[in-house]
Design brief:
By secondary structure, the protein is of the alpha+beta class. It has two domains: 85 residues; 175 residues, Endonuclease Chain A (Endonuclease, Chain A, 2-Layer Sandwich), CATH 3.30.870. Helices cover 55% and strands 16% of the residues.
């Protein structure tokens, strides 16, 4: 019997629970049948209650809390495995929660951008991009939808604007990047070797890509005309594995740029 208890965890557990519950009930019974003063009666009642509560808690802990804890640990391990495999750092439901300025500021070598035109994004991050261009060695590549693309008509209708207005917005963003390009030339800094290259593509981006060295943001496009900032977005990192999302998105970017036409900046 002792050998069985030593070898079986559950036998020891149930033996302890039975002893706790039995001991508690026994002490509680004593307080009912023995005549004692109020002090000892209250003390024994508290001891009995403590034993019973400990026994009940042991059952709850073993079969409810412990099971939940195991499930939580396993789910965390699965999540950790998923993160290691895909490279996902964070998931966003609101694009305003993405700290692009931080990502731009901490980029050292490469920034790649793919979107239809993103005038609001460009204006919002313009000063940080300007600082980065003038004071670093970062290489920036931008892909915009070509203003002469056959897709312009459909997109203009989707956005609820005229074709001319959509083309104007794309050209405004081009002008912004042109200004950044020449702002670098004007500073004349020899110690920094940053570069800006802009490309026009006939491909329709179904989502936007923003790469900052070994991190990348993927922002889904909205299927409706409604203006919204609630767009599912991912922040991923380079895990150095070909199966991760970073590798997938960067390969897609390279494929698009391979079939795009570079814009040569000329002074007005």
């Amino acid at each position: 019997m002792l050998k069985f208890l030593r070898e079986s965890y559950y036998a020891r557990l149930w033996a302890s629970i039975i002893l706790l519950l039995g001991g508690g009930l026994a002490v509680l019974s004593l307080t009912q049948f023995l005549e004692m003063n109020n002090f000892w009666n209250a003390t024994l009642s508290n001891v009995a209650s403590a034993l019973i509560i400990t026994g009940v808690f042991s059952i709850i802990n073993e079969y409810l809390l412990r099971e939940k804890l195991v499930e939580l640990i396993l789910s965390k391990l699965k999540l950790r495995e998923s993160i290691d495999k895909t490279g996902i750092i964070e998931v966003f439901s609101d694009i305003n929660d993405i700290d692009y300025r931080f990502l731009i500021k901490n980029s050292k070598k490469k920034i790649d951008i793919l979107h239809i035109y993103a005038r609001t994004w460009t204006n919002h991050n313009y000063e940080e991009l300007k600082e980065k261009v003038q004071r670093s060695n970062v290489d920036i590549r931008i892909i915009l939808l070509c203003p002469e693309s056959k897709l312009i008509d459909g997109l203009a209708e989707h956005y609820g604007v005229s074709k001319d207005d959509l083309v104007k917005r794309i050209k405004e963003v081009e002008q912004k990047w042109k200004e950044l390009y020449y702002s670098k030339k004007q500073t004349g800094r020899k110690k920094t070797q940053s570069s800006i290259r802009l490309f026009y593509s006939d491909y329709l981006p179904t989502y936007s890509i923003y790469r900052f060295d070994d991190q990348l943001v993927n922002v889904q496009s909205k299927p409706s005309k409604e203006k919204t900032r609630k767009l599912p977005s991912l922040l991923v990192k380079d895990t150095l594995k070909e199966s991760d999302l970073f590798d997938m998105y960067t390969k897609q970017f390279e494929d698009v740029i391979k079939h795009s036409k570079e814009v040569i900046f000329e002074r007005d």
